[in-house]
Design brief:
This protein is mainly beta. Helix content is about 0%, strand content about 45%. It contains no helices and eleven strands.
């Protein structure tokens, strides 16, 4: 069982930065791909970024490439999302998620995995 708790959301002006953190509990966390998703009001939840557990390979959505960076620390059971050059359209509730897949995962498959465990979400608001 994996439990996830996000933190670090808040209000920031356009062009600013925020760092989200996700603390995971559960002994198998370090073996799972981890991802960040977001959901804006009235919109479907969308993939933001994900990272493999072993080699740290990452996959970013086109909308955040060059601005957001996902990272993980398996020793500390944490996953982070560094968000720079924030835009008003980045406003959403951001969720940390884990996919209970322990075998080989191609990097390109990260957005399409079934993410089984989810945090409660943290609000990010970017003002113009």
């Amino acid at each position: 069982q994996v439990q996830l708790v996000e933190s670090g959301g808040g209000l920031v002006q356009a062009g600013g930065s925020l760092r989200l953190s996700c603390a995971a509990s559960g002994r198998t966390f370090s073996r799972y791909p981890m991802g960040w998703f977001r959901q804006a009001p009235g919109k479907e939840r969308e993939f933001v970024a994900a990272i493999k557990w072993n080699d740290g390979s990452i996959y970013n959505a086109d909308s955040v490439k060059g601005r957001f960076t996902i990272s993980r620390d398996n020793a500390k059971n944490t996953v982070a999302l560094q968000m720079n050059s924030l835009k008003p359209e980045d406003t959403a509730v951001y969720y940390c998620a884990a996919a209970s897949v322990t075998g080989y995962v191609p990097v390109g498959a990260l957005p399409r995995l079934r993410y089984d465990y989810w945090g409660q979400g943290t609000q990010v608001t970017v003002s113009s």
